[in-house]
Write a structure and sequence with these properties.
single chain; 172 residues; 2 helices; 14 strands; 46% strand
């Protein structure tokens, strides 16, 4: 079932860059385990992010204050008026590269990666049109986002499968 939307947050030189994937298979597992120290949360998530054979994915572009249907037609604008026209600027192709190559980029726009125990994802569309400075948050963006929203997971691993090109990403 490819009906999920997730936002990937990649950290690059002290700034967070977002990538929004639609058509993602999202499987959440919520569990709690009792220990001698009390109840601990073992929430986990598994995602399938579909790409082409060159590891390129169609991603959504941040468009503030408007609603767009599945065909890219704008149906509500920021002033509340309904309009209908085709807007070709609602998606962008982004290339996957490994975490070390991503870190070496001068400008990571147009790229995404999955770095375990650093990058995180959130179920839903939380994209931003500009990079988010990590220093804007006392305990960091990951903790601020996780404290305010459900469905926020730290990436624990990512594996690429080439037969039906996709990444399987684990998170907790």
């Amino acid at each position: 079932m490819r009906d999920g939307v997730i936002t990937l947050f990649n950290l690059h030189r002290g700034r967070w860059y977002t990538t929004v994937f639609a058509g993602v298979t999202v499987t959440e597992k919520q569990a709690a385990a009792a220990s001698r120290h009390g109840i601990t949360s073992d929430d986990a998530i598994s995602l399938h992010v579909y790409v082409n054979a060159k590891k390129v994915a169609d991603t959504l572009i941040y468009e503030p204050y408007r609603l767009v249907d599945e065909n890219g037609n704008v149906i509500i604008t920021d002033d509340g008026t309904g309009v209908t026209y085709m807007d070709p600027e609602t998606s962008l192709l982004k290339q996957y590269i490994g975490p070390k190559a991503y870190e070496a980029l001068d400008d990571p726009t147009g790229y995404f990666t999955f770095t375990p125990e650093r990058d995180f994802m959130a179920v839903g569309n939380y994209s931003h049109d500009e990079a988010i400075p990590e220093d804007d948050f006392e305990e960091g963006l990951y903790h601020a986002t996780n404290d305010k929203h459900d469905g926020v997971f730290l990436i624990t691993g990512a594996t690429y499968f080439s037969l039906l090109p996709h990444f399987e990403i684990g998170g907790k």
